[in-house]
Design a protein that fits this description.
Na+/H+ antiporter like fold
Length: 312
């Protein structure tokens, strides 16, 4: 429990800093919007590039392990979209944010320190394998859904399809991911000064995103969104790890450290990226913020249970 509290407390601490900066009048709502754009367009893409470019991939990847995690992630993503449509009557763009909130885990801020501490150094490889493909798999799907929703539900024929493809390719998140994989594949090593600058930006990306989240929370009330936030938290903290366990253990027969890492990582709360996407596309941002906060708070209990069940 001490490990859990020590890992989760910084999330609320940094988020509270952003909240207080707005409440005491240090920054206004215009500045909040600019911070969100800076994080989305610069800090997060640089972090993704830097981390993916520096990962040492093994000669043989345990594909069954990735299937257990990502099969459950996309299934929960679809469940989140279904809840938005049939449970809350939300339009397609908000359905995409609900799906991301249900399936996108806080893999970096909580996943790395918690899993390596709980399961030992042997958990490092499966943890970084998940992180390497996490944004590259879930975020492009969300971009496609959001961009398509912004252009109506009647399809994207002809030149509109070309424009959609161009916008997806030009998305800073997608560019950061693609360049990271390319740099890793060719063995690119950044010059010392450039590497230090990129590393510094990568270090501040997560705290900056949490400050942006906290600053935005100061601008609206969460009470009206407790229903969606609670529903997404149930999907993220309950359904996602349950599906991961079903695929990893009874179906694929995976053992330690692969199965425990897949299940506990699936049980992480919604990542701050969910809110950043919602704020960037100006849709369901209060619901996204509520899902991040509620799932992070409840995960203190649910993660404790998962660690006990999975032998952490």
């Amino acid at each position: 429990m001490n490990v859990l509290v020590g890992s989760i407390a910084p999330v609320f601490g940094v988020t509270a800093v952003g909240f207080l900066l707005v409440r005491v009048g240090v920054i206004g709502q215009v500045a909040v919007r600019r911070i969100v754009l800076a994080v989305f367009n610069v800090a997060i893409p640089v972090m993704l590039f830097y981390r993916i470019a520096g990962i040492d991939f093994p000669d043989r990847i345990e594909w069954k392990f990735l299937l257990a995690y990502y099969g459950s992630a996309f299934a929960t993503y679809a469940s989140g979209m279904a809840a938005a449509r049939f449970g809350f009557g939300r339009p397609p763009d908000q359905q995409a944010i609900f799906g991301l909130g249900a399936g996108f885990s806080n893999t970096v801020l909580l996943g790395i320190p918690l899993l390596v501490t709980a399961f030992g150094p042997e958990a490092s490889l499966p943890v970084f394998l998940i992180i390497a493909f996490h944004s590259a798999s879930l975020l492009p799907v969300t971009v496609v859904l959001l961009e398509r929703a912004r252009r109506g539900s009647d399809g994207v024929p002809g030149s509109r399809a070309a424009r959609l493809l161009a916008e997806i390719v030009a998305n800073p998140i997608i560019i950061g991911i693609a360049l990271g994989f390319l740099a890793n594949a060719v063995g690119l090593r950044l010059p010392g000064p450039v590497d230090r600058v990129a590393g510094g930006v990568a270090e501040i990306a997560i705290p900056a995103s949490l400050i942006a989240l906290g600053a935005s929370l100061a601008g609206y009330r969460l009470e009206g969104q407790l229903g969606p936030a609670a529903a997404l938290s149930v999907l993220k903290l309950g359904v996602h790890p349950l599906l991961a366990w079903l695929i990893a253990v009874p179906i694929l027969g995976l053992g330690a450290p692969w199965a425990p890492v897949a299940v506990v990582m699936a049980g992480m709360p919604s990542g701050a990226m969910v809110y950043l996407f919602a704020a960037r596309y100006d849709t369901a941002s209060s619901e996204a913020a509520g899902a991040v906060i509620v799932s992070s708070a409840v995960s203190v209990l649910t993660l404790s249970l998962l660690l006990v069940l999975m032998g952490g």
